[in-house]
Design a protein that fits this description.
3 domains; four-stranded antiparallel beta sheet; 26% helix; globular
């Protein structure tokens, strides 16, 4: 049996955002070829298997078989197209010192390198100064490039809240609320950075727009005239408080778009 050296490989663990949850994804990478050589496996699934009675030895064997047994059959993820795979992410948390970030209103824009997208979620990692240097990224223009990439690989989605959350019971006089996100419903609040989308909504409603950002996955859009600002500010705080996952919570602030976006 041919022996393989693993000195040029690394085991990477990343938080993978899926709708309504974040999972720990584990993958093996070939550092010299910039490719992934194993499928993504989830630590939570391995742990649940162990809790359900599978022996620890079998759980470990399953994980190692997946990570090390797919060199010939795994579909490689080409990591060399990083410049075409960076998308923006909004946060109100203080960025780590080594993170590429840009201030935006009362938030920060971070940048995520999307390595893989499939039915199991989005596998990626944040752009650090080290990554930017290693791949010679144009940090000065990274925001515009990331918005361009976002439109291509995470296309915009706009729908009434009633459609987005069908289990919610709406009254007949419910104010119109629209959910702005992307087709993956992951980190979709970043679409408020794309003013062309906001301007299209502004043109459709022929009204200024109020924007609530309680969750990183979507923005709530409310055309002006259906609720006064004081009530909207209270609603923004109430909705933000209902987001229990700290990794998904964004902000209780209220914003307005009237040709440009501003903090109220």
């Amino acid at each position: 049996m041919r022996q393989r050296s693993y000195k040029n490989y690394s085991i990477e663990v990343h938080r993978i955002k899926k709708l309504n949850q974040c999972l720990d994804g584990i993958c093996m990478l070939d550092k010299t070829e910039h490719t992934a050589v194993s499928p993504v496996i989830y630590a939570e699934e391995l742990y649940n298997s162990y809790i359900d009675g599978t022996s620890l030895e079998k759980v470990i064997k399953t994980a190692t078989d997946l990570l090390f047994g797919n060199f010939e059959t795994a579909t490689d993820m080409n990591l060399d197209n990083i410049k075409e795979s960076i998308v923006p992410v909004l946060t109100t948390q203080k960025p780590k010192e080594n993170m590429i970030h840009i201030p935006f209103l009362d938030m920060e824009i971070l940048f995520r390198w999307i390595i893989k997208r499939d039915k199991n979620g989005v596998f990626g990692t944040m752009i650090t100064n080290e990554v930017a240097k290693a791949f010679e990224l144009d940090v000065d223009n990274i925001l515009e490039k990331s918005k361009e990439n976002m439109r291509k690989i995470m296309p915009v989605s706009v729908m009434p809240l009633k459609t987005a959350i069908p289990e919610y019971k709406f009254s007949s006089d419910e104010i119109p609320v629209f959910v702005l996100s992307n087709k993956h419903s992951i980190d979709g609040a970043a679409y408020i950075l794309d003013e062309s989308v906001l301007q299209q909504l502004h043109d459709i409603f022929k009204k200024d727009l109020y924007i609530l950002l309680p969750c990183v996955h979507e923005a709530l859009i409310i055309p002006k005239g259906f609720m006064d600002e004081s009530a909207l500010k209270q609603a923004a705080q109430n909705i933000a408080q209902s987001i229990t996952n700290p990794e998904e919570k964004l902000t209780s602030s209220l914003y307005k778009y009237d040709g440009s976006i501003s903090l109220i």
